[in-house]
Amino acid sequence: MKKKYDVIISGAGPVGLMCAYLLKRQNIDCLIIDKLAKPQTYCKALGIQPRTLELYESLNIANNYIKQGLWFDEQRIYKNGVLQQKIKTELRSLPFGFMSIPQYLTEKHLNSEFNHLGGKVYRAFQLESFSTLSNGIRVDITDLKQNKTLQVDAKYLIACEGAHSVIRKQLGIEFSGDQLKETFMLADVKVNWDLPHNCSYKFFYEFDGERRYLIFIPYRGKNRFRVSTVIPEDSVEMKNPPGLEEFYAVTQKGLPEGVTFSDMRWSSIYKISHRIAERYSIKRVFLAGDAAHIHPPVGGQGMNTGMQDAYNLAWKIALVIQNKAPDKLLETYHEERYPVGLNVVNHTKSRIDKNVKETPEEALLYDSQTLINYRNSTLSFNSLSKNKRKIQAGDRTPDVLNLSRKGLNFPIRLFDILRGYKFKLIVYLDFDDKNILEELNKQLITIQDITMDAYVISHNEISIDAYEHIEFIFDKNKHFKNKFDAEHSMQLFIRPDNYIGLITEHIDFNAIKNYLKFSIQHQENEG
């Protein structure tokens, strides 16, 4: 461990590892520590939402998850042992479906990607406190194996320590919310039954005049499920963690006849809170994941929301450290992510209270996290009427199928060219205008210090062989044109997290330059 880093990350769960990996990809020197001597091997968070899989694909790391994940086919709902409803768990408009994979595998894959870049997680190191320096942060870290305290300096500090974050508490940031009165229990078990494995199950039943429920979430492995329920108030006090017999005794009244559990790998009794940090950042310190927001585990939102926190924050910190953006850019992390976290906390609590009216498809769309947008962000610029188009600045960039590139004898998707954690400029033209292409190529030369790819998309053949900074995408069947409601021309400036920063309905290079000047400290090359 060195004495100085660009960024220190406290907590090596999924969110902390994602932060470390994203920063390392951008050549940012980061230290990530965790108080645990070795990674946990519990399934814990299971659900991977379509938007998180899009994130993985953009980073070229999706395959490991697809290989070991389990795709949900449907959700089945039972009442008093009778099947009431089957809900297909698919949204054909999205590139990915809904997946489950144990949290320890998520952490394993992220840790492996981080290691491949030369990163290392320092385990059995605990953050005790921190102080502010004139140009950074000084952190006191305890080496739990050697029982000694170290001081390490950094430009920025990210808290990914979970709900009991030491950093959040030292900052004095209020963690607003409350705790649910119910006590919950869950177990990772083998369920001995013949029901399909690619389904999640909800069993509602009544016992002693009280309505109760069981929730079964599957993952890869013969009949492996994470089973959860509320402990009835009249239950005898149980040890924590509960054993297999105790867990079965509480749940058996709601199980179909003849169903039993075996091979328990993990169990827990716990309380659930719904809370949100009133600030996601103060100066050089940032909160992400459960350190910033916790809520009932309805719809598999928690870990996925934390992943999006990391995806939003890492590119901004990297640009500032690389002197390509002003410090003000970092203020947009709270501006953009706090409303998202607040919405998730409130929505999941409302679902628990049964105060949400939504169709199954609306629920799936919400859970997919593809509806999240930053339309009200100071980083989102529209030069067109907000009511004119479905897709606006601040929206997630949607995928487009059946595009093509010269020399490739197979179709490509828009997401294929959005890979890589960097800016992309997309210019749509339905006519061949050499003046526009020459000006575009010239403008791109002046902003080479920014990692950015530039593409011209058109349903007409356009020759760009003379332009070294532009690539051409052929929209023969007008899928892009129709998806984006493009007319004769359009330009999109897409952020590294693949949200649209700027959208104009005509080619306007000054709009691009003004956008860059706002969010990036850009100086044009001389000569």
TrEMBL record:
Broad enzyme group: oxidoreductase
GO terms for MF: FAD binding; pentachlorophenol monooxygenase activity
- Signal sequence residues: none
Q: Which UniProt keywords apply?
A: FAD, Flavoprotein, Oxidoreductase
Q: Ranges for the FAD-binding domain?
A: 4-346
Q: Which InterPro entries match?
A: FAD-bd (IPR002938), FAD/NAD-bd_sf (IPR036188), RIFMO-like (IPR050641)
Q: Which Enzyme Commission number(s) are listed?
A: 1.14.13.50
Q: Which cofactor does it need?
A: FAD
Q: Name one Pfam family in it.
A: FAD_binding_3
Which Gene3D superfamilies does the UniProt record give? 3.30.70.2450, FAD/NAD(P)-binding domain
Source organism's superkingdom? Bacteria
Protein name (record) = FAD dependent oxidoreductase
